[in-house]
Specification:
Layout (H helix, E strand, L loop, with lengths): L13 H4 L10 H19 L4 E3 H6 L4 H8 L9 E4 L2 E4 L2 H4 L3 H20 L8 H4 L31 E3 L2 E3 L21 H34 L8 E3 L9 E3 L3 H6 L1
Antiparallel strand pairs: 1-3, 2-3, 4-5, 6-7
Helix pairs in contact: 2-4
Length: about 260
């Protein structure tokens, strides 16, 4: 289902306030729908759970006949609002909109999440290596604080075909030697085999850097798309308990929709 979103500041936004207030004759359906949208967006901003006082309806220049139609059952017995002593109440608010209680609970969770992150010394802007734990991948791991070079990427190492040249064979997954077997320590004399070895080593380094960059991009993309974790890729172990410890998010809801 597609949604048409209306900002909670719509009722007094510049585009609305820019419109003239000249009375016009329009079908009642148009008038009621417009009043419902303006009043409803204002109620959302004020967190009144769909209540719109008569004073607000008056400031919106909603005629009494329109207000009466908004709460009238109509031929289909489906009124948009319910009458209240000092205003009207949008029906089924909790079904389609966030309630004040839900907003307060969400603010509390976000505040507690930030407090937990500060307590743990977490930064919202970190390197991707800091965002990943050894359990996040099948590749090499490193202890906290240990420097990781491109050749020691924590991510899965892409397969590298066995390179067979005059400089010798290089095992799959290992960095090729920079010199040929005849000159393991290098030589100042021209050597085609050493030149090939250097090219193989440089290619391997470039592949490692690209693999690390691709993995960083994929990890960040998953974090940005995941509805459960924070910008560090962390989430509460119990989503309903803001006191529960933070754990590494595995983005299960993304996997379910893949």
């Amino acid at each position: 289902m597609a949604w048409f979103y209306v900002d909670d500041g719509f009722s007094d936004s510049k585009p609305i306030m820019n419109l003239p207030t000249t009375p016009v004759r329009v079908p009642m359906r148009i008038a009621v729908a417009g009043a419902w949208v303006l009043g409803g967006s204002w109620s959302a901003k004020e967190e009144l759970d769909g209540f719109i006082p008569h004073s607000k309806l008056k400031s919106l220049l909603v005629p009494r006949s329109v207000v009466a139609t908004m709460v009238a059952p109509g031929p289909l017995d489906a009124p948009l609002c319910c009458p209240e002593s000092d205003g009207i109440l949008v029906r089924n608010w909790a079904k389609w909109q966030r309630t004040k209680a839900e907003n307060e609970a969400n603010r509390k969770r976000e505040a507690e999440k930030k407090r937990n992150q500060r307590r743990r010394g977490r930064n919202f802007v970190t390197g991707i290596d800091d965002q990943m734990s050894p359990g996040d991948n099948d590749g090499d791991t490193a202890e906290p604080g240990e420097n990781v070079s491109p050749g020691e990427s924590r991510g899965p190492t892409p397969p590298h075909p066995l390179v067979v040249t005059s400089s010798g064979d290089s095992p799959v997954g290992s960095r090729p030697a920079e010199h040929c077997p005849q000159h393991p320590g290098g030589t100042e004399q021209p050597c085609g085999a050493c030149a090939n070895a250097r090219r193989n080593a440089n290619t391997w380094d470039a592949q490692q850097l690209q693999a690390a960059a691709d993995q960083r991009a994929a990890t960040l993309a998953a974090i940005r798309s995941c509805p459960d974790c924070d910008p560090n890729g962390l989430r509460y172990s119990d989503p309903e308990d803001p006191e529960s410890p933070l754990i590494r998010c595995t983005h299960p809801r993304l996997e379910n929709t893949a």
